[in-house]
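Hi R.,

Here's the input for the nicotinamide-adenine-dinucleotide complex you asked about:
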Amino acid sequence: MPPISEILKKQRQFFATNHTKDISFRIASLRKLEHWIQGHYEDIFAALKQDLNKPPFEAYATEIAIVLTELKLMLKKVRRWSNPKCVASNLINFPSSAKIYPEPYGVALIMSPWNYPFQLCVAPIVAAVAAGNCAVVKPSEYSPATSALIGKMCKELFDDEHIAVVEGGVSESQALLNEYYDLIFFTGSTTVGKIVMQAAAKHLTPVVLELGGKSPCIVDETASIKLAAKRIVWGKLVNAGQTCVAPDFLLVHESVKKMLIEEMKIAIQDMYGEKPLDNQDFPKIINIQHFNRLMKLIRDEKIVMGGDSNPITLQIEPTLLDVVSWDTPIMQEEIFGPILPILSFSNFEDLIKMLTSLPKPLAAYLFTSDKNNERFFLRNLSFGGGCINDTIMHLSVSKLPFGGVGESGMGTYHGKAGFDAFSHYKSILKKSTLIDVPMRYPPYSHKGLKWLMKMQK
Ligand code: NAD
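And here is the predicted structure with nicotinamide-adenine-dinucleotide in place:
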């Protein structure tokens, strides 16, 4: 791999040829990518199995299908979305036309994490290419099999001057961040997000930060408890809880707490069997550091289910914790593992008010059949996005922009939002040269001022 500065120089030269702005070039690039993915399912499954012990169903549903959906949508819409849009001009500028021209930013940096290592790296590539950019891509060092596969895929499909993959760890990331880009699209932790934003600030580079946080899941006394239990357990345990939008902790009305815990125990057994550690389809924790971190978090807690682990396979049982205090260590950091702390509440409105004092999470979930509670939750709590009566599934809807707010990030993508994230919208007013209203020029007159004020009404 040539030095980063060399890759960037070539990408800038290539971008300047306007080749990436050509719609047929974008479509051809997206088609190649789609065909490659469709022809390499087994390779993707194998890489995700190696990195995270993901079963093929999860690998397809949560990684491949999301990318293919994005590709399909971009291929269908890229021509329309790239066209300039006419908007109404105004009387002051008569006669004129006003248009918005979508244009690619130029050369983007895409940095991605390890938890959905294929999807979270390739979906931004799809959006970058559709919007007509060049990109340098940095997959995560913690998912080496998938990162190597993405490197191989991009080498086969794209010239480095269009899309280049730089593999490596923190030092490579830091070296990448020392360079100038037209956009940085970062997915990862809030801590590294701040480092990225600082680096971007040096050049006033726009950033999209897709970060994490502690996403609450609330179950009130009117919820359908059996269904809530199934959907919460599923959302928590998919990818062994290593999901940015996983319900991080559970807040249940005290009157239904016992029932919900019992239903969740049943749901866990139904999904993963009596011995989840023997279940071939249960994903592993990414590395020993995270495994040890998670085991330490449950050490002093009251375990109501699970708690066992296997340090050889790096698997931790689905674990339910009965937590009484917000001050406990597990309530201080994003869990990112198959562990669900359960707290109870007695007053819904007080609970929501208390949650507003915490950092704004990436997701929040409410299980209820009470319209007033639903309204109060949506009106008072700020968070990236979420579901009523489900978990995680909001990100499967391409028409819902996906992203955080506050500490959980800024900017959105998925579907049109992805195209927008990688586009600058250039506003152009085109004036006629036939008429030139003299009133706007000095020396100003009282009559001119009165006319201007009248126009404003
Ligand atoms: P991370 O922030 O540690 O790493 C992300 C990327 O940053 C990697 O490519 C890594 O090489 C690079 N990096 C790490 N340390 C760096 C440093 N000091 N300087 C520069 N670059 C550095 O995140 P992770 O552990 O890979 O992923 C887990 C986090 O990502 C969780 O917080 C999770 O919530 C979040 N996440 C968010 C989304 C989302 O879409 N919002 C999706 C998945 C994960």
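One thing worth noting: The radius of gyration is 25 Å.

Cheers,
M.
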